[in-house]
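Researcher: Here's my situation. A collaborator sent me these components and asked whether they could plausibly form a single complex. I don't have experimental data yet, so a predicted model of the whole assembly would be a useful starting point for our discussion.
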Amino acid sequence: MPPEAPKAAPAPKDNRWKLVEAAMRRHGYKSHALIETLHTAQEAYGFLEEPVLRAVAQGLRVPLSKVYGVATFYNFFSLKPQGEHTCVVCTGTACYIKGAGDIMEAIEKKFGIEGGETTPDGKISLLTARCFGSCGLAPAAVFDSEVAGKLTVETTLSRLEKWST
Amino acid sequence: MITLEDLTEIAAKEQETRSAADHHVHVCVAASCLSLKSDLVKESLEKEVKQNGLAGKVAVKGVGCMGLCMAGPLVTVGDGVLYQNVTPEDGIDIVKGLAEGARPISRLEGDSKAPFFTKQVKVVLENCGKIDPERVEDYIAADGYRALLETLENKTPVDVCHEIQKSGLRGRGGGGYPTGLKWSTVLKSTGARKYVICNADEGDPGAFMDRSLLESDPHRVIEGMAIGAYAVGASHGYLYVRAEYPLAVKRLKAAIKQAERLGLLGTNIHGTPFSFTVDVRLGAGAFVCGEETALIASIEGGRGTPRPRPPYPAEEGLWGYPTLINNVETFANIAPILRNGGAWFASLGTAKSKGTKVFALAGRVRNTGLIEVPMGMPLREIIEDIGGGVPDGRTFKAVQTGGPSGGCIPAPLLDMPVDYESLAQAGSMMGSGGMIVMDDSSCMPDVAKFFMEFCRTESCGKCTPCRVGTVHMHQILQKICSGRATEADLALLLDLCDVVKNTSLCGLGQTSPNPVLSTLRYFKDEYTRHVIDKKCGASVCKIRKDEEVHG
């Protein structure tokens, strides 16, 4: 039993939790499966909410502090829910040299959100990434897991506007 | 059990199917072209072939990166014809042209005899753009896995280490440590178990060599790892890949399954006592995990923080066991070295830097993409001939190599050869191979600020000089770029660079001052202009007039 009952623990019959459970089982519930498990959990739930972190800690028998430490150490893990759509702007060197900064600034100005934030209506989350290797097409961004390159301020804004209506 | 004869048979069968077709159309399906919808181009080509009754005559194949990413989607027909910026609609014309007797479509044609292609020497990328990365048979037809089986048959682990030492291969992850020496150390280390790790945590912003290689020719890396495992006496390996590279992960996982199915991975490979299995581990977006001890901590499931060395992973690595850890490109060089001999490899390159190097050419240069050149090629040839120079009538200012650990090389040094020593002498480093060209629209203190901001956020926080020093250096650079800095700030910045460089725990901190130091060395005047005149020559920095008084 954990020291305190997790609030709204993931239901064992929940299909999303089944995926996480399967990931832990695949690695024999070993503590080194933590990162792999968190990847699966984030994919299943969209983000890492506290009850899930607690359940993972219990499943792999690692302290919650370690789970929290790992989940917050890596940029890829998000502890906040994402908006309906996500736009990840690459801020790697090549994109920076080719004007990713202007694109970020324009989005911030237009939608009133900064990197890591979601619009109040929950439609768009704006994220930044440290290079996803599309430097040949800089500046690049990922719109809902679709990579788009050779962007301009105008093309980026018009794509986002389609989401916010 | 798989034998060399089996490989020959698979290769012959591949060859047979291939020669049955009159025309071979290759479509790039690596991430860059895919993001420009090359998958739709391939579908359209396949549909057209079918509709025109050319099935069997025209073979359409998805292949890995062809290099010229900026002109994607790329399609080649046969050996000589290269089509650029192909749309799905163009598929109709291309197939029609083939039906009418190999007539090239001139409006799509790119120059396949351009210096971008002719000046390159391909060893690591020899299969990229030629084989289907999702089919092991295609790799085998390109002599794949032959080196592994021949090694298992004829060479002892000591022989393999000697051959690699003879080749002069040095680590392609940036440090340039002699690979053969590393392998020998792991071989000599004693431990109940040993591990092989492939570092595919390509964190340098502006570098995409490993991504392209893993997407285009995953089996080559797996073969290199297997040979490495045999040479050092390991039976299990990990491929640590960035989670930001989903396609590379997918193709690697598929490649591992295929290799297992054929008995090229698993127990008693080729009927020998040698067994080797590989697992893929996903990174989670931490630049510091490119450092080997941090990477190991991450595979063990913890926060990716480095630890002091020695002991080196070669003696005490993953879970305390001797571990061989090499970069993707290093492993990709292994099979060709064993196939052609260490002496052949040593004949390429310069006296101290052997072989070739893959670079990701990006930024303000006409031809952005993936290139491979022999070590020692002058920077000018890479940027002006292969890269096609700076576009839009602007002038070249600097080229940045080595990512956040590297430096900016100015125009007067363009004739220097690209090798480990020359780059280090110029205050930069080889790094993993990112090469970002900047023109006069870039402001150098701003570039230094960009990299310092990167190091500041990516510092893991374990050691004080890096955790605190990067924050302070970033603050000073912000002051410089907003026109609020004084000469005392510049002096303090230099002091901080010195401290952080010499007292940080790992490479991230030790090299974080490099972008500042190299820009200060070559572009001192730009700093002085920001500090004294409160002006940004490139009009990048936003210097507000009212702030001048507060200096």
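Model: Some features of this prediction you could bring to your collaborator: The CA atoms of residues 24 and 68 of chain A lie 17 Å apart. The first helix of chain A runs from residue 15 to 26.
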